[in-house]
């Protein structure tokens, strides 16, 4: 016999109307879903369950537990469940609970063949490329509006982002660039000693650092530090529905959140790269003069002769492209973040991986172009 809290109605064929009333709090005791499923078994022609509630309904997580079990049971029987008449809070909690359930089911059921998995990955890559191109188009359009003075731009926030991208990253860039320059000097000295040409260590360190290595190392550092920070910040804003609030107010999230971050990295990456060039050359200088006993003046003269101005410009082009890639990856993954804590972690990891992968691909493309142009 059904509880007084549940009223069933079969007034419409193939549809079961369920009206819930009374106290559905845990303290009042939970009702078993078997009271309803037994009715579904006796009426096998039911294809839809419509849930309604009375005005005097009192509920907490006990109601959500009951509805979750009922929904799972209906899914197994291929019966659709209409939940629009539930309280708004109950609908949200039930949707979250069902989403977690679906993810667990999908993680357990993975019997697809190798070719099916490959096909799914290809489709995911295609969707990712399409969303990335759409996002890139939004950024370009926002920058055009920025030049025209039609973008709401907060300079205080922009200066804070510039400080985070520059000053807060300076120590790490200094350490890594110095060590890379020292490593290059060590590796070069092993072979050059055989020829008695240790002085050409200056050429190896100077050209390598200025042309590409300083920009690449700075890009990787910025991707791991700043790109991940961008993804985490925007991911939390997405999870807390702050991005939706901006849209409701008529403010474009790309213009308000993305453009300052892209512009800050485009400005700071060349500056950090020039600084990394100097630190890398200084690292080679320390090893060459301190351990290999080379003449300091001769080392500096060789560096000045070997490093051409065109190499400096190539390194700066690398740095600007890397700044765009890192900011693009961090902001894209942040705005695509799922609305939960796990989603923020995934977005942060994905931003770093995407940024570093993009840096490697961009380096290969720019190097090939420079080779074709003969620079």
Structure write-up:
The structure is a single chain. Helix 4 (114-147) crosses helix 9 and helix 7 crosses helix 10 (296-306). The chain folds into two domains: 6-108, Transcription Regulator spoIIAA, CATH 3.30.750.24; 140-373, no CATH class. The protein has helices at 34-42, 61-76, 88-108, 114-147, 155-165, 167-195, 201-239, 242-248, 253-290, 296-306, 309-335, 341-373; strands at residues 6-9, 15-20, 23-24, 48-53, 58-59, 80-82. It is built from twelve helices and six strands. The radius of gyration is 30 Å and the shape is elongated. Helices cover 73% and strands 6% of the residues. It has 375 residues and is α/β, with parallel strands linked by helices.
User: What share of residues is helical?
Assistant: over 70%
Give Rg in angstroms. Answer: 30 Å
Dominant shape: elongated
Number of helix segments?
12
Q: Tell me the distance between the termini.
A: 86 Å
How many runs of DSSP E, i.e. beta strands? Answer: 6
What's the structural blueprint in terms of helices and strands?
Blueprint: E1 6-9, E2 15-20, E3 23-24, H1 34-42, E4 48-53, E5 58-59, H2 61-76, E6 80-82, H3 88-108, H4 114-147, H5 155-165, H6 167-195, H7 201-239, H8 242-248, H9 253-290, H10 296-306, H11 309-335, H12 341-373
Parallel strand pairs: 2-4, 3-5, 4-6
Antiparallel strand pairs: 1-2
Helix pairs in contact: 2-3, 4-9, 5-9, 6-7, 6-9, 7-9, 7-10, 7-11, 7-12, 9-10, 9-11, 11-12
In short:
With 375 residues, the chain is of the alpha/beta class. The protein has helices at residues 34-42, 61-76, 88-108, 114-147, 155-165, 167-195, 201-239, 242-248, 253-290, 296-306, 309-335, 341-373; strands at 6-9, 15-20, 23-24, 48-53, 58-59, 80-82. Strands 1-2-4-6 form a four-stranded mixed beta sheet, covered by helices on one side.
